[in-house]
Specification:
This protein is mostly beta strands. Helix content is 2%, strand content 38%. The protein has one helix and 19 strands.
């Protein structure tokens, strides 16, 4: 399942390529989450020469004008380069003069680091890459920073593919707190004098027998608002969507459907 549900607010930072240290983005990703990193496509300078320009994905030495590359092609940038032995690049894993990222509990140290990520201008790193999670750090893959200039604007967003949590169910007898609509309530089921309200999603597995003050054997109908259907299995009331899927992803089959009111 693809990571497509944002978690929390996005974080936007400025990566100054002349700083020479890992930037703490302030974002922490958790195990099971994905990470989306989006960088601006403007160029930065990694030297004083007119053609020493790089994009978030790296340096295009073969372009007629590396400072004005027409095509975005991360595969065409200069390959990995280690730098001088006495003054190595941040990592050998990624192209030189590229935006790099690392997920770690504390600020990374040293050079020729492993476990780095390459965001390019936009990338979503899956949960398997995020691993145990940690703080997100950004850097510019260079070995000399004093002659650099410029910056990129980078936005980070945590993502998840986990299903939404089951709805919180409130039961009422039609005279108390369970009666009527509440802020955020999207659906309302009325089972004779029993009323069930919940904030969206599906209602699955409410055992009416476990509600002795509300359960009566003469209940014969249920009113459903929204694209739902109601089923009674023994004394358990299920409200599902049109596909028959419950909140936990299973299907209800072979049961009698109750009369649905409008």
């Amino acid at each position: 399942m693809a990571c497509d549900t944002p978690v929390g607010d996005p974080v936007t930072v400025t990566v100054d390529v002349s700083r020479g240290v890992w930037l703490d983005t302030g974002m922490t990703v958790l195990v099971g989450e994905c990470l989306q990193i989006t960088a601006s496509g403007t160029t930065v300078k990694f030297g004083v020469n007119a053609d020493q320009c790089a994009y978030p994905e790296g340096y295009y030495p073969g372009a007629g004008n590396p400072c004005a590359v027409v095509s975005y092609d991360p595969g065409a940038v200069e390959g990995t380069y280690g730098g001088d032995g006495s003054d190595p690049y941040v990592t050998l894993e990624q192209p030189p003069y590229a935006l790099i990222a690392k997920i770690a509990a504390s600020q990374p140290t040293g050079r020729h680091l492993s476990g780095t990520l390459r965001p390019n201008r936009a990338a979503v790193f899956p949960a398997a890459t995020v691993g145990a999670g940690g703080r997100v750090w950004l850097h510019f893959n260079d070995n000399i920073f004093g002659d650099n200039s410029g910056s990129w604007t980078v936005t980070l967003q945590r993502l998840t593919s986990a299903p939404a949590a089951p709805p919180v169910i409130t039961l009422g007898n039609g005279t108390g707190a369970g009666q009527g609509s509440k802020p955020g309530v999207q659906s309302q089921e009325i089972y004779q004098s029993l009323q069930v309200t919940y904030p969206g999603g599906y209602l699955a597995g409410v055992d009416l027998a476990s509600q002795p003050t509300l359960y009566h054997t003469d209940f014969t109908s249920v009113r459903v608002r929204g694209p739902y259907r109601a089923y009674l299995v023994g004394t358990t009331l299920h409200v599902v969507d049109d596909a028959g899927e419950l909140a936990n992803g299973t299907a209800v089959e072979g049961v009698d459907i109750l009369r649905i009111g409008t």
